[in-house]
Automatic annotation (TrEMBL):
The keyword Transferase applies. Its cofactor is pyridoxal 5'-phosphate. PANTHER family: HISTIDINOL-PHOSPHATE AMINOTRANSFERASE-RELATED, THREONINE-PHOSPHATE DECARBOXYLASE. This is Aminotransferase. Belongs to the class-I pyridoxal-phosphate-dependent aminotransferase family. InterPro entries: Aminotransferase_I/II_large, NHTrfase_class1_PyrdxlP-BS, PyrdxlP-dep_Trfase, PyrdxlP-dep_Trfase_major, PyrdxlP-dep_Trfase_small. Coiled coil: none annotated. Its EC number is 2.6.1.-. Residues 25-341 form the Aminotransferase class I/classII large domain. GO terms for molecular function: pyridoxal phosphate binding; transaminase activity.
Length: 351
């Protein structure tokens, strides 16, 4: 069975019993190609001293930095050891209840919900290129649901649904006492300003520091919601669950506005170039607003294996409901890696 996440390409070769080439280009993960902000690297020796002390029990100074960043009170923020911990806490909140997932989407939602005996209903977006939410089907299901999960922008397609549709889902959910969990892990790549937490008490926004700031090894995420929701999540979280180095690095990352803008511009340029190239090859390509592109070639599995033999690891979609392995995802990398990718694609499509 293929790994259910990107990154760690050696696991892909092991699962397929393939000998990896000497040089591997990993396009399966979608972390900022720039790496952590230079100032974080420069200051890292200063963070080492934090190992000697217990982290702040409230999560300071990162907690206040997040509250200021989103213009919300501190009591509306809960921190997590990565966004993955937040989703585990949310799954406990919905234990033995009904939750609606809009597929294809991040597989971690279903994994955490199933572990808490949640009954999952899946609605599949029929056209992943336009990513129109199935509003009528959602409306029919909401009266029976404790929550609906929306991944905006979507993972794995990178598409952003129309704001009018998002607003419609939020409004309908309120009428039925259904909470709306919005995963904004990739919103940093598109628009960091639009949020729904200031308008609605039943919306829970989940964010990750991993993707934009390229710190997946640190594990840092957070959620913003109404006070009573945040209090309930905090009661489930273990004490000192976010380490002191993560709190310090997360705080510093939020000051890196120029770094973020440069990363957005680089990703936007290369996403557009990749979309154009894949379209020229005759592929269906999603309208991604993130730092990755999802596309449907004539034979995804054959291309996936061909790329592996060339030392290029693409992200399969075997575990994404609705894509059924027929699509592939490519994360934007540095110029040299992108050149290797285009050369591989040329060889494949010329065949």
């Amino acid at each position: 069975m293929l790994p259910s996440h990107g990154a760690n390409p050696h696991y892909v070769y092991e699962a397929l019993q393939m000998t990896p080439p000497q040089t591997i280009y990993d396009f399966s993960e979608n972390v900022n190609v720039f790496g952590p902000p230079p100032q974080i690297i420069k200051r890292f020796p200063q963070y080492v001293d934090l190992v000697k002390r217990y982290p702040d029990p409230l999560g300071e100074p990162f907690l206040s930095a997040i509250a200021h960043h989103h213009n919300v009170p501190r009591q509306q923020v809960v921190l997590g050891n990565g966004a993955s911990e937040i989703f585990s806490l949310l799954a406990r909140r919905y234990a033995n209840k009904n939750v609606l997932l809009i597929e294809p989407t991040f597989a971690e939602y279903a994994a955490t919900l199933q572990a808490n005996h949640v009954t999952i209903t899946q609605l599949i977006v029929t056209d992943v290129l336009t990513w129109e939410l199935p509003i009528t089907a959602i409306q029919e299901q909401l009266p029976h649901m404790a929550a609906i999960y929306l991944c905006i922008p979507n993972n794995p397609t990178g598409a952003y649904p129309a704001r009018e549709q998002i607003q419609a889902v939020i409004t309908m959910a309120a009428q039925h006492g259904c909470e709306v969990v919005i995963d904004e892990a990739f919103l940093d790549w598109y628009d960091d300003t639009k949020t729904y937490i200031h308008q609605f008490n039943h919306v829970i926004v989940v964010r990750s520091m991993t993707k934009m700031y390229a710190i997946p090894g640190i594990r840092l995420g957070y959620a913003i919601a109404h006070d009573n929701v945040i209090n309930a999540l905090k009661q489930q979280a273990p004490h000192w669950h976010v380490n002191a180095i993560a709190l310090a690095i997360g705080t510093a990352c939020l000051q890196e506005t120029q770094y973020v803008e440069q990363a957005r511009q680089y990703a936007r340029l290369h996403v557009q170039q990749l979309q154009k190239a894949l379209t020229t090859y005759g592929c269906k390509v999603t309208n991604s607003v993130t730092n990755y592109v999802c596309f449907k070639p004539p034979d995804a599995k054959a291309l996936f294996y061909f790329a592996l033999r060339e030392g290029i690891v693409l992200r399969h979609t075997e575990n994404f409901v609705g894509l059924n392995g027929e699509w592939l995802r490519i994360g934007i990398k540095d110029e040299q890696s992108m050149a290797k990718l285009y050369a591989m694609l040329d060889r494949w499509f010329q065949k």
